[in-house]
Amino acid sequence: MTLPAAILPRLACTLLLAITAAPSSLLHAQAFQGLPAGGGFDPQRVLDARYGKASAAAESGAAPAAIEGALATLRIESTGATQDKRVPVSVGQVFAPGAVAGGAGLAGKLADGSRVPLQVDVKARHPDGSLRHAVVSAILPVPSKHPLALGLLPASGAAPQAGGAPALPEGVDATFTATLDGKPWVATLARAFAKGKPRSWLAGPVVQEWVAAIPLADAAGRPHPHLSARFALRWYPELRKARVDLTVENDWAFEPNPSNLTYDAELAVNGDTVFRQPELVHYHHARWRKLAWTGGAPAIHVRHDTAQLLASRALPNYDASVRIDDSALTAMHKAWSGPKTEPMGVGAALPAMPTTGGRPDIGLLPGWAVMYLLGMDPRAREITFGTADLAGSWSMHYRDRRTDLPVSVVDYPYLSTLGGPSVKFNPVAKRSEAFPDCVRPEACRTPNLHDTSHQPGFAYLPYLLTGDHYYLEELQFWAMYNVFASNPPYRFYGKGVLKWDQVRGQAWSLRTLAQAAYITPDKHPLKPHFLSLLDHNLDWYNTEYTNNPRAPEQGFLTFGYAIVYERGRGIAPWQDDFFTSAVGHAAELGFGKAKTLLAWKARFPARRMVGEGSCWVAASSYAWMVRDKPDGPFYPTIGEMVRASLPEQARDLPCASDAMMAALKRKPGEMLGYSSGTSASPANMQPALAYAADTLGDEGWKAWRQFMARSFKPNFGAGPQFAIVPRTK
Predict the structure, then answer these.
(1) What CA–CA distance (Å, rounded) separates 498 from 533?
(2) Predicted model pTM
(3) Element spanning 642, H or E
(4) Which one of 85, 495, 549, 663 is separated from 697 by 20 to 30 angstroms, measured CA to CA?
């Protein structure tokens, strides 16, 4: 038997995901069971389709095959000529529950069988004690013509980590200077180590990293009231190579008279200027970042194991069969230049978040991030990580001097960016928790307008894959902003309940909050804050919806400006789908109360497709009517809802019939809502239906099959942010 050629690429990628996610002992017994052998199907081609052949492909530069027995295989490729013989590698790595048991460690193995010492800095563990997230570091030979494969294998015991007092390595220095109105304000790496109370981030024989912050100071040593520098120094002692990670901040939460500041910026490392920008306008409560290496950055690109990342459930189950459209990626990368890629630019994102319409930055992850996840292309990495670097450019970064951390509503329950002074006064602490007013309104103007309802997920994937401290804090800043961007009574003060927002705002805020609660290191002071905030939110949603007999039987949200169409009769099902997908993501991250909520919430997308009396053609309509009149009772059945939502001329016609499609001015098999758009309503619905299939059993799968049977589908290769598929079969 010979399989049709047209289906082989999709089948190969699908099998690859199953193969790499399964234990190695099950590889032949399960993954290839029942498949034809011989000329019609070659199991090795399944691997070659993604990674290339281990031998012949090496000559052409294709990636080598996975390392046998590895939990994940990293592929390191050269990006240019170098005189180095060995190269430092530090990456973030996430694992599924139970993959690396508590007390166990990791070992490194190359394709030739040789072992590589690894340093594993554990950041977070699953509730069962198994490893969730770590920074894995090694010194490797420089890849030559072909990529180098490094397998991460389970080891019997965790390697001991070295500690010790922070010490600035000999021969490493960095100086940042901001010249305001002709006056220099300076921060040095040496002073940060001496005065900034350095904190260890990585500690071991391969690499050490410390994070220290100090205010910029004038010639007399007087600190600037608003500007501070944060250095993260990464040091590889064996290679005597250092990475200087500088973040310049204008973000103290309660410092009086905040404003934009204009200065000439210059960063020098070991006496050499590595960055200079005259008249840099640094917006209030914003920050920017620059990296520099002593001796030059390593000329490598690390490709993570996509199948392993997806199987870990730390990321949504993006369709591994999607082939990234090279022309779309090329165009995106070509546009990656100019002021938008420099400090206070916003990279690939839109400066004004409230801008409406289909966009590549909306989704559980932005489109460019999913392009990188599925293809591991260096161009997509540059855009993904570069835009995450620039996520600091919006004026919503508030740091607490008391803790030196992003400000938290758990500490300041009356904190807010909205409402008058009276709602921001804490009667228990007897203090105002309002942010100080700008020195002058015009002194705080910025083109970068942030909100919750159109907010990209900037930093989660970059932190997951690098373990960089900057990305962790960026995720935390956005998660906290989403919670305090409301009147304190509306959110129940320190509980941070999100129900006040637009449904899409609730969705993206819940997404970011769940990610912060999941990936923030266990020993981080804000970890219990994020867990508590998420718990309060899930309790509220389950009380108001899941366990409430008065909640809509069909599973849609009613709070937070939900019923806004037709003068209080209709909802936006696509916004509701955003929320369902955010709940599904939180459930896959392991939060049990999210699983409970998802079982109720997943009804709505599924029943719009296959519920009694419904019509799948209209499931992705822009608006759905849920009652006859404002403040009236909700329709008890999905059939009544779809009848009220369809245009009058189509209501009495058989679903998807030629007559209905003609009345709706649609082609046979086409859903409403721009069926071919990668960010249009049917695409928005796909993640919600994928989670419904995994949650609801037969009803969910019936809805998924009906959805996939439609004739008009997007080319997700050009924008894969909604290309999420079920995990179960």
Answers:
(1) 10
(2) 0.91
(3) helix 638-645
(4) 549
